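Q: Hi! First time doing this. I have a protein sequence and I read that you can turn it into a structure. Is that right? Here it is:
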Amino acid sequence: HYPRGKLVMAGTAHLPLVGKINFGNTSKEELLAYWQKVQRDTGVPISFRERVIAINRDGESFRIQTSTREIRSRNVLLAIGRRGTPRQLGVPGEDLSKVTYKLIEPEQYSNRRVLIVGGGDSALEAAVALAELGTVDVTLSYRGRSFSRAREENRLRIERAEAEGRLAVLMESHVTEIREDTVLLRRDGRVHEIANDAVIVCAGGLLPTDLLDRIGIAVDTKYGTA
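A: Yes, that's right. Below is the predicted 3D structure, encoded as structure tokens:
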């Protein structure tokens, strides 16, 4: 689900069965090609489109119930992330077809007015990807005062794009309503209406708390982050 050509920032790591990896900054396509080669070389089986429904202990092992079968295993490693369930804004109009929660192909937004909502790396990367096309009217809305959660490189890219007039940044702004041709944002104590053709919400994701509760994992949330 990453955008085509997405910049991926990774450090050095040593992986069993693979050895040392050191990418630095690479692209989505290069990283995906590398992992596909690793899978082929190691023969690690991958089952796609299979959802884990329940995990139960059975003596010294576990029984994992999925959407297609039951698996028995001595160990279970959860590495589920949050991207599967995007966080929604909860505002009127969010169910319109022009609202999405990820950017895949920047070119599909050519000659359109696009609002990006969020302040993390995914939001900043999506805004820059659209701005670099030169054919998209891009606005980035974030409720915070600064992009403190994003990587420095992404913050610098946003600053350059804004200085060059390739996108607009609205800090401390909140989307209050999404309409067919406009979006309402609250900022500086007033509601502003801006022309809009598409909204991309990059506000993080939700933990699968129901599954975690069922398998006995407690989640401690502090300052809004689990």
